[in-house]
Amino acid sequence: MTIGFIGVGHLAASMITGLIRSDHEETILLSPRGKSKELAALYGLDICTDNRELTERADIVVLAVRPVDAPSALEGLPWRKEQVVISVCAGVALSRFPAIEARLVRAMPLTATEINASPTVFYPEVDRAARLIARLGPAIALRNEDEFEVATVNAAIYGWAQDLIRQSMIWGCKQGADEKIMRQLVAQTFVAAGRMIAENNSSVEQMLKDLATPGGITELGLAILEQKGQPEAWSSACEAVLARLTPTAT
Ligand SMILES: NC(=O)c1ccc[n+]([C@@H]2O[C@H](COP(=O)([O-])OP(=O)(O)OC[C@H]3O[C@@H](n4cnc5c(N)ncnc54)[C@H](OP(=O)(O)O)[C@@H]3O)[C@@H](O)[C@H]2O)c1
What we know:
Layout: E1 2-6, H1 10-21, E2 27-30, H2 36-43, E3 46-47, H3 51-57, E4 60-63, H4 70-73, E5 84-87, E6 103-108, E7 120-123, H5 127-134, E8 139-141, H6 145-174, H7 179-198, H8 204-211, H9 217-227, H10 230-245
Helix pairs in contact: 6-7, 6-10
NADP nicotinamide-adenine-dinucleotide phosphate binds near residues 7, 8 and 90.
């Protein structure tokens, strides 16, 4: 199988690293520009002369250009019916792409594809796309594009979670904690918190109730976060991102 990347920037580099780590046997082709030269040298990959050559040679094409460049990047290329194009471009609805012969799928990977740990939503469910995505972490098929857009907000939440880790590290270091220890401790705490929810069937409300002992430290902190506007601030941020992703729906 041959996988071609149109747009070789930050996210494509993470995806390519993840694919190479996952016992890859396929050929990976890169479009020119961006990080192509760097990745070609690092992993011994081919850079195509242009997107036409890439389209002619690839079975699956990953479109990873900036959203504004996405629709035009697919125009005028020699698409075939049996090809699959996976667009990872945030907020670019299927209807905004030109009509092409290839099957078009949207996906929203995180940079954790680099360590094969990205929960990646995708729509519509197309087998070959699902198999490729599953090599980069949990692949989650969604039922429609509206659901996909809401789930895309999660790509921003990923960054906010990293910022909470950063803030907690800075706070700990200011109190005299060792930076390397704080980095591992806080990051692994977020991993543990996420896994407990992902791997348990109990309700999240009940899990939090069990954690927040009356008069205890979790309860104390949650009350202060609420006083300072945390739940509203978080949902406002989510709403702003969704509005940016779906400008015509608002
Ligand atoms: N970064 C993330 O964590 C992340 C997560 C989820 C989804 N995404 C989505 O992934 C996409 C890429 O994001 P990114 O952060 O990787 O952007 P990026 O680093 O700016 O990379 C985009 C690359 O595409 C190239 N490009 C533009 N038009 C092209 C064309 N027609 N043919 C070939 N290459 C072309 C650009 O080249 P030039 O610089 O020469 O223009 C640039 O190297 C975006 O749509 C974003 O919404 C990103």
